[in-house]
Every structure is written in structure tokens, then in C-alpha cells.
């Protein structure tokens, strides 16, 4: 009897251990986006876009701090030069801020303003590549923003290096809502999401020049009846599988970028899932940002956790170390 009980317990344990576990990490904010993990400080940074806030969650102490930058704020990309210097987008401009992750910001320096030809556009997403180039996208806005409510074709994806800081290079143009970006382990493929296309596009990527070519759709959301919503933020794991947040879909999906197979679907208690990134000391925790922006009062009652930062564990894989932006000299 005891042996049976023991076997039963082990089976249950193994089963539970294999299943992803979703943890709510913070209380809800308005519109969480752009999570990024810095292993130098054990901080998980993310933004509250429309509230103009940058937040830092300390994985070791569980402390959450925030600063306000005034204006739509995203993305946040740690700088290579110094763990306390962060590159951040506010409206159409890129700034460097000096911040230790506490509640005081020490300095803020304007670096460049993008898309002057589209004055109502704003920066939407960004990431650094292995060479430290900053890839940052502008989005055409017109009043209330929704996946269908942007000025069409006014988006531009730029890349910025130290040398092109004053003249960022348009890389993909036009786009509608430039979002998820990821590079594979071999650093010769670039994965990209323009949200309204409901798909993930793969480009060949020249790691020396940063030039992308040969776009091809590798995942088409409309071919999968089990999921809905809009592809938003994205990351990649050590096996080169992609993890995509589905805005208004309530799930994070894992997809195989060469076969296009939908490998895993993980539900969260919020339908507006905005982005994902790997973090934690072993890069095996998938941090997920969500939003309550635009939810009706009834939906907010149904989804009390919407807008929280979540962490998913037990995924049996992990991420690759993130890349730092290398676009400024050490001293601000
Ligand atoms: C942007 O959206 C419009 C309207 O849906 C569409 O006609 C256009 O082709 C889209 N642009 C791109 C680059 O996908």
C-alpha cells in the first residue's frame, strides 16, 4: 500500500513538474511591454507605455521600482558600457538614462529623434543585436491605438550604431505595427513581427553588416484555429524555437520557425499579452508582460490580474544571453 502511494506521489509529482507553472509577479499596471533581463544586476526591466514609466523588478529581493519619463515610453535596452545606463524610447526620441533601478533617475540625455516625416508617430519596440546595434521601430499613430487603429504604412524599423547615431538607417519600410524581433543562435536569421500581418517573417541576416534579405513567412496565425489574437512581442530559446505573445489571444505560443509547427500553447489569466523574455539566473523563466489598457470595466472585473508581470516556469528550455545596446560611449 505504502509503495503504491509512493509511486502514485512520484507520478503526480513528475506530471506536475513537467507542466508549465504561471506565477503572477507584480500587481497590474496599465500597459506592460518590453521586458528585458539584465544578468549583471538581476533586474527585469519593463515599461508601462502610456503612463511613461520604466519599471525594474529585482529578482533577488522582489523589489519593484519605477521612474516616470513623461510621454509614451518604450523600449528599454540596457547599455553595454555600464549596467546603470539604459537606452530608452520616449515618443519619437531615443534617450540614454542613468538609473540604478531605484526610484531616482540620475541623468537623461537625448540621443536622436526618429521619423520626423511622421510627427504623430512614436517608437514602439526595440532590441539590440549581437553587435550592439539598436533595432528600434516607429509606429504611425492616430488617436486611440489598437491593432487596427494606426496610421497605415507610417511605421519604419531602424537600426542604429555608434556611427549612425545621428542618421539611423531605415531597415524595413513601410511597416504597420512593428513588434517582435529575434535572432537565431547561429546569428544568420532574423525573425520579425509586423502585428497586423498575423504572421512571423524570417529574413536572412548578415551578422557583419546587419543587412536583412529574403523575407519569408514562417508562421501564419490564421492557419491555426486553436489560437486567436495578434502576434506582439517575441523571443527565442536555445533550441531556436520562437515564443510569441498573442495580444487579445490570452496565450503565449511556442513555434518551430522552420517547420511552422505550433509546439505549445500556454494560457495566462489575461487576454492582452504583450511580450515575453527569458530571465532568471539560468535564463529558464519566461517573463511575460500584459495589459489592461482598453479593457471595459466588465472585462477588468473578469480579469483582475490583467496588466501584471507574469513568470512561467517548468518550460524545459531556456533563453540565450541578451545583447546590450552599444551605441554610446561610456560617459553620459
Ligand atoms: C498596412 O495596413 C494596410 C491596411 O490594412 C495594408 O493595406 C498595408 O499593406 C499594410 N502594410 C504593410 C507593410 O503590411
CATH architecture: 6 Propeller
Give the low-confidence spans: none
What helical percentage do the residues reach?
A: under 10%
Biggest β-sheet strands, sense, barrel: 4 strands, antiparallel
Count, helices:
2
Number of strands: 24
Proportion of strand residues: over 45%
Q: Output mean pLDDT.
A: 91
Give the CATH topology: Neuraminidase
Query: Which CATH class?
Result: Mainly Beta
- Gross morphology: globular
Class per helix and strand makeup: mainly beta
What spatial order of strands do you see in the largest sheet?
A: 1-24-23-22
First-to-last CA distance? 69 Å
Based on CA atoms alone, the radius of gyration comes out at 19 Å
What is the H-and-E element order? HEEEEEEEEEEEEEEEEEEEEEEEHE
Bound molecules: 2-acetamido-2-deoxy-beta-D-glucopyranose
For the record, what is the CATH homologous superfamily label?
Answer: TolB, C-terminal domain
**Count of structural domains:** 1
Subcellular location: Cytoplasm
GO molecular function: calcium ion binding; enzyme regulator activity; gluconolactonase activity
Binding site for substrate: 122, 124, 145
EC number: 3.1.1.17
Amino acid at each position: 500500500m505504502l509503495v503504491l502511494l509512493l509511486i502514485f506521489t512520484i507520478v503526480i509529482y513528475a506530471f506536475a513538474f513537467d507542466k508549465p507553472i504561471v506565477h503572477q509577479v507584480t500587481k497590474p499596471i496599465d500597459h506592460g511591454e518590453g521586458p528585458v533581463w539584465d544578468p549583471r544586476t538581476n533586474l527585469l526591466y519593463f515599461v508601462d507605455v502610456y503612463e511613461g514609466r520604466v519599471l525594474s523588478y529585482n529578482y533577488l529581493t522582489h523589489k519593484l521600482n519605477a521612474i516616470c519619463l513623461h510621454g509614451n515610453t518604450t523600449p528599454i535596452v540596457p547599455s553595454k558600457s555600464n549596467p546603470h545606463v539604459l537606452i530608452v524610447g520616449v515618443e519619437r526620441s531615443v534617450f540614454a538614462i542613468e538609473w540604478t533601478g531605484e526610484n531616482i533617475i540620475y541623468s537623461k540625455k537625448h540621443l536622436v529623434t526618429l521619423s520626423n516625416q511622421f510627427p504623430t508617430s512614436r517608437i514602439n519596440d526595440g532590441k539590440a543585436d549581437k553587435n550592439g546595434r539598436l533595432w528600434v521601430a516607429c509606429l504611425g499613430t492616430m488617436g486611440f491605438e489598437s491593432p487596427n487603429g494606426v496610421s497605415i504604412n507610417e511605421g519604419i524599423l531602424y537600426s542604429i550604431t555608434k556611427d549612425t547615431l545621428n542618421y539611423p538607417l531605415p531597415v524595413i519600410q513601410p511597416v504597420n505595427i512593428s513588434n517582435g524581433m529575434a535572432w537565431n543562435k547561429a546569428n544568420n536569421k532574423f525573425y520579425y513581427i509586423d502585428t497586423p500581418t498575423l504572421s512571423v517573417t524570417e529574413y536572412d541576416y548578415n551578422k557583419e553588416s546587419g543587412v536583412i534579405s529574403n523575407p519569408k513567412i514562417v508562421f501564419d496565425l490564421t492557419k491555426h484555429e486553436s489560437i486567436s489574437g495578434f502576434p506582439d512581442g517575441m523571443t527565442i530559446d536555445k533550441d531556436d524555437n520562437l515564443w510569441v505573445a498573442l495580444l487579445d489571444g490570452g496565450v503565449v505560443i511556442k513555434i518551430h520557425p522552420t517547420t511552422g509547427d505550433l509546439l505549445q500553447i500556454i494560457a495566462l489569466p489575461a487576454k492582452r499579452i504583450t511580450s515575453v523574455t527569458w530571465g532568471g539566473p539560468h535564463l529558464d523563466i519566461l517573463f511575460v508582460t500584459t495589459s489592461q489598457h482598453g479593457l471595459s470595466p466588465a472585462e477588468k472585473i473578469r480579469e483582475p490580474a490583467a496588466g501584471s508581470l507574469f513568470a512561467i516556469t517548468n518550460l524545459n528550455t531556456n533563453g540565450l544571453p541578451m545583447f546590450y545596446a552599444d551605441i554610446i560611449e561610456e560617459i553620459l
